[in-house]
Amino acid sequence: MASPITTGASLFSQSSLFTLSLKPQVYSSKNLIQSSHRADANALTTSLCLSNRASRFHHLNYRNREASKRGLSSVCFYESKNSSNGKGSELEWPIVQRWDVPWEWYTVSLTSLACGLSFVLTGLIESAALPYLGFQIGELSLDEKAEILFFDQAFATAVVLATLYSITNRSEQNPDDVYRYDWRDPFNLQKGWLLWAVIGLIGALITISLAGAAMAFLNGEPPQRETDALVRLLPLIGSSGVSTAYLVGITGILAPILEENVFRGFLMVALTKWLPTPISVLISAAVFSAAHLTPGEFPQLFILGTALGLSYAQTRNLLTPITIHALWNSGVILLLTFLQIQGYDIKELLQVS
After folding, report:
1. Contact 320, 251 (CB under 8 A)
2. DSSP string covering 109-146
3. pLDDT tens digit string along 298-327?
4. What are the pLDDT digits (tens) for 331-345?
């Protein structure tokens, strides 16, 4: 490195003297000596600058070589700095990222308690109010029962969602991806709500089928179905077009909107404040399954809840789990209605005791 720098300095010095000799002036020996000294000083300054740059470059190469021996590099540190600013996270799929949760633990606890109490109290108030409104359950037709069930579910959905939003949905502090409904780009590969709804539904169907087959193989015979919501609705299934329409409205519209806002839009999102997103998905799926009060159906509901949570984590759009939930519930009702019309015993098909 010394030879090129020295050569450059000497050339610079010679060119300076050569320029001075071309000027049509008379120079004394004193002037020439001073000019020569200035040229040498300029050359020395340039040489020192180049030497400093070369020294710094050599020192940087040495540090990089030493860092590479330890499995590190300066580029790695640079990328980690960018990722800490959020730029590196763009390469990750949203399914593993957390929400920017604005609620503290006391808000989450209060909201959970308020939603549970409002749901229970709503049911009690409705049951107590029916006789005073002139409705005798034993004297109602199947269509009238389906209509009352629809309005009961609509009332409960409105009360619980009003409670949920009044406590947590503050526009000045909630991020854009909390309680988000976005109809745009339904088939986008990364965040398309309809595309991932189809993927989640197919995945849930396959997984639940395999789990059911495994349980039947281990138990020797399919277990008797418990008295869940579907079994209680069996008398209304296939009774008339009006009853079917009300049942689809209950199970395919109202129930998905209510449950996905509570279990995915609120509970799962809130858990990501303290836990990784996949763990939050599993916990919310377990709570979702337990809330149906049917222990025998827990594995299937847990699988469905996991599919709902993963699809929501991927798209950050509540339309995705609501669509899966709606297609699942309404698909079951319509399939059983079709089988009932065709003369099949749906109680036997469902293994209802």
Report:
1. no
2. HHHHHHHHHHHHHHHHHHHHHHHHTT--GGG--HHHHH
3. 999 999 999 999 999 999 999 999 999 999
4. 999 999 999 888 888
